[in-house]
Design a protein that fits this description.
Elements lengths: L1 E5 L3 H13 L3 E5 L2 H10 L4 E5 L7 H9 L6 E5 L5 H10 L3 E4 L4 H15 L4 E3 L2 E4 L2 E4 L4 E4 L2 E3 L3 H12 L7 H9 L8 H15 L6 E4 L3 E4 L3
Parallel strand pairs: 1-2, 1-3, 3-4, 4-5
Antiparallel strand pairs: 6-7, 7-8, 8-9, 9-10, 11-12
Helix pairs in contact: 2-3, 3-4, 6-8, 7-8
Length: 225
């Protein structure tokens, strides 16, 4: 797996490279948010480590920009003991976790492994089929069943469920979901529209619908059943 380190400090880039390559990861580096975004678009990056305090585009802005086009896992780093507000800001921007420097190699690797378990292996995929408890979704056939019984969804409801299921345990804001599902037409909808779709999904999915959790102040996520 390729891990991209976005940090404007060469010393930290070098340290992270030693830690990550020692654990068997392939490492790419970027010295700015802009360079990092370009590399994510050009390379097959499987994980991003993103510093908060950088010259030019800061980590929060870079994180939000990355989230506009990819769900790649992101671990944010900061040299300042972050307040709760900073952590919330990072999570709202789309980060999967937030860690304060200095840290040990063991903690870094454990955090990466935990994020990857949630984002890469949480959903079981076989021939475009995704499962979560009794819920089964087939992207090819565009079918959904709960405990073997077919559930009829609108196109938008299906796309919303598929997106959350494929990125299980990741929190997405209403604005992120609007942009992902409505794209250029997002300006025609409101965050209330997302709430309505979530509510309808929960009703249609029955017991399986409890997996769609509201993360107060942040958005929604689909959890493992």
């Amino acid at each position: 797996m390729k891990i991209l380190v976005i940090d404007d400090e060469q010393t930290m880039q070098h340290l992270l490279r030693l830690m990550l390559e020692g654990a068997g990861y392939e490492v790419l580096s970027a010295a700015s948010g802009e360079e990092g975004i370009r590399k994510i678009r050009e390379e097959k990056v499987g994980f991003v480590i993103l510093d908060v305090l950088m010259g030019g585009m800061d980590g929060f802005t870079a994180c939000a920009e990355i989230r506009r086009f990819t769900p790649v896992p992101i671990l944010m780093l900061t040299a300042i003991a972050g307040s709760e507000a900073d952590k919330v800001k990072g999570l709202r921007a789309g980060a999967d976790d937030y860690m304060v420097k200095p840290f040990s190699k063991q903690e870094l690797l454990a955090r990466i492994e935990a994020i990857l378990r949630r984002t890469h292996t949480a959903s079981v995929r076989v021939d475009n089929e995704w499962t979560n408890g009794t819920l089964e979704l087939n992207e090819t056939m565009r079918t959904v069943t709960v405990a073997g019984k077919k559930v009829t969804l609108t196109r938008r409801e299906f796309d919303l469920l598929a997106f959350l299921l494929k990125h299980r345990e990741q929190v997405f804001s209403r604005e992120q979901l609007m942009e992902k599902l409505w794209g250029e037409q997002a300006y025609n909808v409101t965050t209330r529209t997302v709430d309505t779709h979530i509510k309808t999904l929960r009703i249609k999915l029955g017991e399986a619908g409890v997996a769609i959790e509201t993360v107060w102040g942040l958005g929604y996520k689909l959890v493992k059943l």
